[in-house]
Structures are given as structure tokens and as C-alpha cells.
């Protein structure tokens, strides 16, 4: 999805900064019974399956939700790329609404063998820090376990729900996933090329890579100092 191959870190484009020592985690849940509910937010959230996938809406949501936490891997996608991605029968896109507006969204993919990946899940900026995040992740995960019944009707049941996150993510993301019942299945350290998030459809007030890069470098430095030998292999898209 990102153009990063297993052969090594790609050359940087003119608008990219290479952030060293980004820690990436694969997290998983192996039984629906392991899902732990989150406290309800102060107002009702509703969740709607996009039965008519829209490249325009998905691209806008990707930029609105992800640019502040370095969701940048799809910035170079064309309309045809987005269309091919969202119109697959194995992918479901869900829109979360609250207080009369879009509060967030998530993407779930039915993969072979019962694996079900949460590609993206996150809130729009106005809802961050207001108690909505845990409920969003809970409802996303519940729907992931409902594959074959609620969506991807021909895909069969889910046997494993998994996701990827990284040290570029929101500081509370890992704790949120753990509280919902996810556990770490794998961990790697990579040097990640990140394009300027201010290239989103509208300018952002700052470049979040500066703080994120410092945090990732500090964590990687701590791991090197402790003699860690974690493998380094580039990955694909990460979620928030």
C-alpha cells in the first residue's frame, strides 16, 4: 500500500523526511470473548456501513482523521487507486456520527483464513480527547468479529482480528487497544519515510512529524541502549 518493499527503505521524495527508529506493533485478538467494552461517551454515537463505497469520502476521511498522526502513506494515491481499494467486496468502511456530524470512521478487511484486519480507525479532530476513542475501537472490533454476517457475507467467520500501530500514533492508542483486549503479537523497528502532512487537501496548522519523530527516536534510542535486537523491516499502512 505504501510502495515500501521488503528489500529496504525506499529513496525519499522531495517532500519526505525519514524518521528513524519508528516502532511498529502488530496487535491481535483471537477470540470475540476477549473484547472488553469501553465506557459510553457522553452522547450517542451511531455507526453506518457505507453500502455505496465512495473514493471521495474515504479520501477525505483519511486526511481529516489521519494527517495529525502521520497517516500519509496514501497521499499519493490516484482516484483510480482509491476506487479500486474501497470497492472490493472484502473491505467495509464505516462512518461514525455524533452530535450531528461525522465523528470518525474505520476500515475493516476480510482476509483469507479468517484473519480480519482493522486497517484504519480514528476520530476527527473535534472529537479527540472527549471520551469517544474507546467506544469507537470497541464498536469497530465488534463489527470485525461480525464478518460473514453483517458484512463480507461470503467471506466466512472471523477467527482473528488484528491491526498495526506505531510510535507515530496518538500517545493513548496502545493503551486503548490493550484495554479493549488486544495483545502485542509482533514488534519491529523501521526507518519510515513520511511525506509532509500539510500536503493534505487543506493546510494543517503544524507538521506533526517533528514531535512524532523526536518521540520515535527517543524510544528507539532507549531500546538500542538496552541491547535490543529487534528486526528492521518496512511495513504497510498503520492506524491510529
Q: Describe the largest sheet.
A: 7 strands, mixed
**Overall number of strands:** 7
**What structural class do you assign from the helix and strand content?**
alpha+beta
Distance between the termini: 16 Å
Low-confidence stretches: 1-12, 228-238
Helicity, as a percent range: 10-25%
Q: Biggest sheet: strands side by side, in what order?
A: 2-3-4-5-6-1-7
Q: How large is the share of residues in beta strands?
A: 25-35%
Rg on CA atoms, Å = 17 Å
Q: Write the H/E string, N to C.
A: EEHHEEEHEHEH
Sum up the overall morphology in one term: globular
Q: Determine the mean pLDDT.
A: 83
Q: Number of DSSP helices?
A: 5
Explain this structure:
The chain is α+β, with helices and mostly antiparallel strands and 240 residues long. It has helices at residues 55-66, 79-86, 133-145, 173-180, 209-225, and strands at residues 16-29, 46-49, 91-98, 101-110, 115-123, 160-166, 183-195. It is globular and about 45 Å long. The chain starts with 15 loop residues before the first strand and ends in a 15-residue tail after the last helix.
Describe this structure in a few short sentences.
The protein is of the alpha+beta class and about 240 residues long. It contains 5 helices and 7 strands; from the N terminus they run ββααβββαβαβα.
Amino acid at each position: 500500500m505504501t510502495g515500501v518493499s521488503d528489500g529496504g527503505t525506499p529513496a525519499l521524495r522531495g517532500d519526505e523526511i525519514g524518521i528513524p527508529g519508528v516502532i511498529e506493533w502488530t496487535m491481535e485478538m483471537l477470540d470475540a470473548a476477549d473484547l472488553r467494552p469501553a465506557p459510553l461517551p457522553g452522547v450517542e454515537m451511531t455507526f453506518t456501513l457505507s453500502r455505496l463505497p465512495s473514493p471521495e469520502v474515504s479520501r477525505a476521511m483519511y486526511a481529516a482523521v489521519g494527517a495529525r498522526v502521520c497517516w500519509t502513506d496514501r497521499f499519493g494515491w490516484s482516484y483510480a487507486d482509491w476506487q479500486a481499494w474501497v470497492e472490493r467486496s472484502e473491505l467495509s468502511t464505516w462512518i461514525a456520527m455524533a452530535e450531528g456530524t461525522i465523528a470518525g470512521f474505520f476500515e475493516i478487511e476480510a482476509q483469507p483464513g479468517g484473519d480480519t484486519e482493522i486497517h484504519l480507525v480514528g476520530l476527527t479532530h473535534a472529537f479527540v480527547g472527549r471520551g469517544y476513542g474507546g467506544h469507537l475501537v470497541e464498536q469497530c472490533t465488534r463489527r470485525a468479529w461480525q464478518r460473514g454476517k453483517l458484512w463480507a457475507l461470503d467471506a466466512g467467520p472471523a477467527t482473528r482480528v488484528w491491526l498495526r500501530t506505531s510510535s507515530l500514533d496518538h500517545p493513548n492508542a496502545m493503551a486503548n487497544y490493550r484495554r479493549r483486549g488486544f495483545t502485542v503479537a509482533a514488534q519491529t523497528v523501521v526507518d519510515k519515510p513520511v511525506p509532509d502532512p500539510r500536503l493534505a487537501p487543506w493546510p494543517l496548522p503544524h507538521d506533526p512529524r517533528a514531535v512524532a519523530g523526536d518521540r520515535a527516536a527517543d524510544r528507539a534510542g532507549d531500546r538500542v541502549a538496552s541491547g535490543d535486537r529487534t528486526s528492521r523491516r518496512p511495513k504497510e499502512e498503520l492506524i491510529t
